[in-house]
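User: Run a structure prediction on this.
Assistant: Running it now.
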Amino acid sequence: MCYFPKKSIIFKGMNIIPIYQMPFRSAFLLFIIFSFIGWCSEVLYVGIFYEHKFVNRGFLHGPICPIYGFGGCAIMLLPPKILATWVPLFFLSMFLCSVVEYFISWLLEKLFNTLWWDYSHYKFNINGRVCLLNSLLFGAMGILSVHFVIPPILYVLNLLSEKVIYISSTVIAVALTVDLLITVRRLVDFSTTMERIKTLSESLKDQFGHEEWFRDNSLLEMVNSVKEKAAAERSKLNEKLNQERLKINDKLLERIDRLMSHHKNVESYLKRFPTMKSHLYKDGIAIIRQHIKEFHNKKK
């Protein structure tokens, strides 16, 4: 059984069928393909121009960025006559993908109190969520995908049997579901860690804010000032054998060190989203960025 008429995959003088006319499983595979193409683009772009190394982009563990899947599917909702064009398709791809990116950025910030990517340093941006440069790239990707990438993909899907489509879409759907569940757990852990760091910052201010030696410009300075004070007092207290005071200081330092050392999950997200920022978790993100920087400096 064929899912697509062969003439529907030819652009010149013919129309390509939009995604809403495709069988659900075939449309799902197209979503995954768009997501994979987006992931490859992100990895290459960040790897070549920024990190100069491989960085697994996106939230998921697998090689897909669903935001590109949604953007690609949004483009494929356009009428066949529009899909066969160049200039209208370019501008509509810009618009649709930018709307998708803005909405997902807004939704993630509402859910996790964090702006995962920030384009504020680019000209012509909207609230740091989208920018003109990315929108132009979305337009170019829309043209390349619809006119050059989708036709051979549809041709291959057209050749596959219903059984192959069913099995492949089912396997990918199961793997994606497992990945999503793991990712949701990691995101919840991320929010929990950031909330604990925020709570630590507030408790340190409440406990030592009135002390002259306490520096409260940032969480990093707070932690360092507490450690310095504890080290200075330790020698004096040792002389007086004030074991109770030593225990209190040790418990506080142990709490700080435990919290500061258990944030690998947060570090991984900061590496994937280097422009991440949050008004609520500003201090936490800053101190973990500092930790990453110190680690890299030690390796050098």
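Residues 39 and 67 are 9 Å apart (CA to CA).
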